[in-house]
Specification:
This protein is α+β, with helices and mostly antiparallel strands and 614 residues long. The chain has helices at 4-12, 22-33, 55-66, 84-87, 95-101, 104-117, 127-153, 158-182, 199-208, 211-217, 221-235, 239-255, 263-276, 282-314, 322-325, 333-349, 362-392, 395-413, 418-432, 439-444, 448-458, 460-465, 474-481, 533-538, 559-568, 570-592, 602-609; strands spanning 37-40, 47-50, 187-188, 195-196, 485-489, 494-496, 504-510, 513-516, 522-525, 530-531, 545-548, 552-558. Strands 5-12-7-10 form a four-stranded antiparallel β-sheet. A four-stranded antiparallel β-sheet has the order 6-11-8-9, with no helix packed on it. β1 (37-40) and β2 (47-50) form a beta hairpin. The radius of gyration is 37 Å and the shape is elongated. The structure holds adenosine-3',5'-cyclic-monophosphate. Residues 496, 502, 515, 523, 531-535, 542-544, 546, 583, 586-587, 613 line the site of adenosine-3',5'-cyclic-monophosphate (CMP).
Length: 614
């Protein structure tokens, strides 16, 4: 069964103010999705995560966070006299690493752990790792553009070919170096709970995961081609050997396509980037996903364009191929490339431009079919991703609209009168303000301290305006806030009916109400006042009717919760009894024009006067 506490807290979070408080919001998000704070045992090689569960700890963390002077701070100065470059390999004090490790001490322990792990291990939270990933993403992307382009178009273009050889030799070396570096790169395991720093464990993890693919894609094809070309020049006298070498070079050209497997690095770098760059924020994740999507679409178009030209070039340009038809055999490479990409795009998008002539020859047919299929896949990917993104954007407004439509259907199905329908619609709009959240589910996954903090934010006005809360013990305010339930009444609504049984009292956050009795008593209450308490204190029937004069935002407290709170705070009960007593006197005065003197004990007074209301 659902507890009242949950119901009260849930309903009390009836608006979206929490999103305006970045600290609360960030802590809320971190609490739900992680990354959780880690307790690090310097003697072990792993660190474990633990969820934040105390207000004190959260406050400490917040204080530490606020003391972080910049985006990056060096915290390992005191560990040993490391040279400047070496500190780049250690985790740094950033807002993100502090959230992950929980405290500066834990982060320092992590540095000590890394120091103990041995020389030259790069920590996943070190600055050098970030720069390295960014650099490698850039190099990989350039490689993935340059490799097919060189293969397809730059054959025979001597100036470009020379530049490409230099570029290829450098990138081959870089990718071989990358393999070596990966054996010294700390690994964040998939559940983000452990950072592997032991070289043996890192090597084991790497060998089991990406090593083989990295090794194949880093194969130094250009060094091989260079050696083969050297041999070709030396032995060009023999026609037989020369033709054999040409075939070897051609094979090497095709073989060099394996370097395109470097695309796997791109995928990996993107996911690592997401991991390190605090993936908690939906906006960051969305941004990274959009960048990945565009990068992949761009690559697909480019590769397709290159294949369009590469296949006829492998066949030595047959008479009926598109290159000959377009008269491009001796055109500059940039013109060939532009036509190739244009042709690829026209197939992929399914537009007739550029492919007015049907494809001739089997090879061309297959190329066209492949690019058509890849285009269809590209579309599917794009539509699926955009649809997923659109679904997540402003889900609360969509849910609200759907619920509202449902309500309207219900009203017309039940044939409710027009006036009532409009009152229901107005109520719905005032209560939910265009957004609908499953607040119960949201708050249920939070700790008590976070709930209190959220409610504190939501009820700031109430706590400020209700005199009963002024200068009170924080425990009392928290106890009440957790039990409040948000309610909205429209102008003219009867909130309490005289002589009815009562089950709750109300605090006015905004709005005005009229208290009136059959004896023509009339008084107005407004922001910060409360009413409905007499019935709960005396366990009798309502002493007066209360009607909303304007749209009222109220917080209600049920009889059960009311008694629970007052039991723990007798001084508040005494104060409420005094106010109730005064109110009752006013009513009694009106009834029989007789003044009852104040007695020492407020409870007695209530007992004496409460019969008036029955
Ligand atoms: P209750 O009797 O539970 O329901 C009606 C409420 O009207 C009552 O509690 C008081 O909170 C409020 N009320 C009754 N008399 C007065 C008064 N004289 N002045 C202000 N409020 C009153």
């Amino acid at each position: 069964m659902e507890s009242d506490l949950e119901k009260a807290t849930t309903e009390a979070v009836g608006c979206s103010d929490v999103y305006n408080n970045p600290t609360t919001y960030q802590r809320l998000v971190n609490y739900i999705f992680g990354p959780e704070k880690k307790e690090v045992n310097p003697s072990s090689t792993t660190s474990t995560a633990s969820a934040p569960d105390t207000v004190e700890h959260d406050l400490e963390l917040e204080e530490e966070l606020n003391n972080v002077p910049g985006s990056v701070t060096d915290i390992n100065m005191g560990l040993s006299k490391q040279s400047r470059w070496r500190r780049l390999f250690f985790p740094q004090l950033t807002k993100h690493s502090l959230y992950v490790y929980g405290s500066v001490t834990a982060l320092q322990n992590e540095c000590a752990r890394q120091e103990a792990a041995g020389v030259c291990i790069i920590h996943p939270f070190s600055p050098i790792r970030n720069y390295y990933i960014m650099f490698m993403v850039f190099i990989t992307f350039i490689n993935l553009i340059a490799i097919p382009m060189e293969l397809a178009f730059l054959e025979g273009e001597h100036t470009e070919e020379f530049r490409m050889v230099i570029f290829n030799l450098c990138s081959d070396t870089l990718f071989l170096l990358d393999i070596a570096i990966n054996f010294r790169m700390g690994v964040i395991t998939e559940d983000s709970e452990v950072v592997l720093l032991d070289p043996k464990l890192i090597a084991c993890h790497y060998l089991k995961s990406w090593f083989v693919l990295d090794l194949i894609s880093a194969f130094p094809v250009d060094y091989v081609i260079l050696i083969v070309k050297e041999l070709e020049e030396d032995q060009s006298t023999t026609t037989y050997t020369a033709s054999k070498l040409v075939r070897v070079v051609l094979f090497a050209r095709i073989f060099s396509l394996i370097r395109l497997l470097r695309v796997s690095r791109l995928v990996r770098f993107f996911s690592e980037w997401e991991q390190v760059a605090n993936s908690n924020m939906e906006a960051v994740r969305l941004f990274i996903r959009i960048i990945c999507l565009f990068a992949m679409i761009l690559l697909l178009c480019h590769w397709n364009g290159c294949i369009q030209y590469f296949i006829p070039s492998l066949q030595d340009f047959p008479e009926d191929c598109w290159v000959v038809r377009e008269n491009l055999t001796h055109a500059p490479w940039i013109e060939k490339y532009s036509f190739g990409v244009f042709r690829a795009l026209s197939h992929m998008i399914g537009v007739g431009y550029g492919s007015a002539d049907p494809p001739t020859g089997e090879a061309e047919l297959w190329v066209v079919m492949t690019s058509m299929v890849s285009g269809a896949l590209m579309y599917t990917m794009m539509v699926a991703n955009v649809a997923a993104m659109m679904t997540n954007v402003d889900a609360a407004s969509k849910a609200y609209r759907s619920k509202f439509n449902h309500l309207e259907d219900y009203m017309s199905y039940r044939k409710l009168p027009k006036n009532l329908r409009s009152r229901i619609s107005t109520y719905y709009q005032a209560r939910y303000q265009g957004k609908w959240f499953d607040e119960r589910a949201i708050l249920n996954v939070l700790s008590e301290s976070l709930k209190v903090e959220i409610l504190g934010n939501l009820c700031t006005d109430l706590v400020k305006t209700v005199p009963m809360f002024q200068g009170r013990d924080i425990n009392f305010i928290n106890a009440v806030l957790l039990k409040l339930q948000c309610e909205v009444f429209q102008e003219g609504d009867i909130i309490i009916r005289e002589k009815a049984a009562g089950d709750r009292m109300f605090f006015i956050e905004h709005g005005r109400v009229m208290v009136k009795t059959e004896q023509k008593f009339c008084t107005e209450l407004a922001d910060g006042d409360y009413f409905g308490e007499i019935c709960l204190l005396t366990k009798c029937r309502r002493t007066a009717s209360v009607q909303a004069l304007t749209l009222c935002n109220l917080f209600s407290l049920s009889a059960e919760k009311f008694n629970e709170v007052l039991k723990d705070f007798p001084e508040i009960k005494e104060e409420m009894l005094r106010t109730a007593s005064q109110r009752l006197w006013t009513l009694q005065d009106l009834k029989d024009q007789k003044q009852t003197p104040l007695s020492e004990n407020g409870t007695d007074k209530i007992k004496e006067t409460s019969t008036l209301g029955v």
